[in-house]
Design brief:
By secondary structure, the chain is an alpha/beta fold. It is built from ten helices and eight strands. The chain is globular, with a radius of gyration of 17 Å.
Length: 221
């Protein structure tokens, strides 16, 4: 199957309100161009280094999403062009994104990463910690970021019931945080679901799925 065919197949199964992020990590510029020529405009990378190497070589109307774990000292390298940062898991990172966005005179959209999986390896904050951030005066002082929703990763398991309950946990965190409504938020996005579990995620309320191997084939590490 070609990248174009894979994309067409996936998009034909998606409801209109769901955005597809093509996860292009470890994939060459040529593969991204193939997806671009098939109409895809939103791409996700999980390493800043890789994203900043690819960005100058590709069309300017691409929306770049940072989907991996992000270190504060790396924010400055992509602050000029990144569209959405998925993995904001603490306030200090948010503060750094705000600072770097201000330097480039722009507002950067962010998602709060909520820990929904049982695995210890997954990053994220609790819904309670997210609520504390959104209700703090320090948060309101950030003028160059906008929290547009939440992101979460389910446990890597074949147990569909467990995956579903974790996704529902994220949906309920989204609903709860949305009611707080500080001025620098606009809750619209629930980023959950990857190649293996996105149909479940969509049933549970996902508005944005992150799909790599089902589009580009298996990754080469």
């Amino acid at each position: 199957m070609s990248i174009q065919k894979n994309l067409e197949h996936i998009k034909s199964t998606l409801p209109g309100h769901v955005t597809l992020v093509a996860v292009s990590k470890t994939k060459p510029v040529s593969a991204i161009m193939e997806a671009y020529n098939a109409g895809q405009r939103v791409f996700g990378e999980n390493k800043v280094q890789e994203m900043i190497e690819k960005e100058p070589q590709l069309p300017k109307d691409i929306e770049w999403h940072m989907i991996g774990h992000l270190q504060r000292n790396k924010v400055k390298y992509m602050a000029e062009f990144v569209s959405l940062i998925h993995g904001v898991d603490n306030f200090r990172l948010l503060k750094e994104i705000d600072k770097q966005a201000k330097i480039h005179n722009r507002t950067i959209d962010c998602l709060l990463q909520i820990k929904i999986a049982d695995e210890d390896s997954k990053f994220g904050m609790t819904a309670e910690e997210a609520q504390e951030i959104l209700q703090s005066t320090d948060f309101l002082a950030l003028k160059n970021i906008q929290i547009v929703g939440v992101m979460g990763m389910a446990t890597f398991t074949d147990d569909k019931k467990q995956i579903e309950s974790e996704f529902l946990k994220l949906k309920s965190a989204f609903d709860q945080l949305k009611t707080l409504d500080p001025s620098n938020t606009k809750f619209e996005v629930i980023s959950m679901g990857m190649s293996g579990d996105y149909p479940i995620a969509i049933d549970c309320g996902s508005t944005l799925i992150r799909v790599g191997s089902s589009i580009f084939g298996e990754r080469n590490y």
